[in-house]
Amino acid sequence: MKNFFKARIAPLFGVIALVAVIGFSMAACSGGDDGGGGGGGGGDKRADLVGKWVKDGGSNYESIDYDGTGKNSSELLYFRTGSAGGAQYYVKVESYDGTTVKAGDSKDAFPPITFTTTIANGKLTLSGLSTSGGVDLSVFNGTYTKQQP
């Protein structure tokens, strides 16, 4: 009986202990999350950009339009100045993680751009735009208010 215990039962205690150590290690790695997050970016948030945004105090009626439905040209982010027929710059939105917008690809009419934007309380704050493809986009840096449909 003693040999049976050593040969058959004792190794099971080793396996059980190993499983317990792995389980506790996994729990320790994922435990303690208070919902504060911080870190991973939170995925693609392009839907937050949808709408027409008009620059607060803009000197030339600057606006940004984004439909976001993914149909044909509606994936495009339009930067516009002036009234009808005014200057425009458009790029396809590739990603938005809540802070950084990456837009454009080699097939677009204008070169790819990356800029920073945050959205809070119906306001979009945009920064980091400069000259791209010979077009001065810095005029679009600033705060925008979302227009009601």
Describe this structure in words.
The chain has a domain at 46-146: Beta Barrel (Lipocalin). The protein contains 1 helix and 10 strands, in the order H-E-E-E-E-E-E-E-E-E-E. The protein has one helix spanning 2-30; strands at residues 51-55, 63-66, 76-80, 88-96, 100-103, 113-120, 123-127, 131-132, 135-136, 142-146. Strand 8 and strand 9 (135-136) form a beta hairpin. It is elongated, with a radius of gyration of 26 Å.
Please specify the SSE layout and strand pairing.
Blueprint lengths: L1 H29 L20 E5 L7 E4 L9 E5 L7 E9 L3 E4 L9 E8 L2 E5 L3 E2 L2 E2 L5 E5 L3
Antiparallel strand pairs: 1-2, 1-10, 2-3, 3-4, 4-5, 5-6, 6-7, 7-10, 8-9
Helix content: 10-25%
Give the percentage of residues in beta strands.
25-35%
- Low-pLDDT windows of residues: 30-41
Structural class: alpha+beta
State the CATH class of the domain at 46-146.
Answer: Mainly Beta
Total number of helices: 1
Per CATH, the architecture of the domain at 46-146 is Beta Barrel
Helix and strand run? HEEEEEEEEEE
Strand order of the largest sheet: 1-2-3-4-5-6-7-10
In one word, what is the shape? elongated
Total number of β-strand segments? 10
* CATH fold-level assignment of the domain at 46-146: Lipocalin
Largest sheet: number of strands, sense, barrel closure: 8 strands, antiparallel, barrel
Rg measurement, Å: 26 Å
Averaged pLDDT = 74
Span between N and C termini? 82 Å
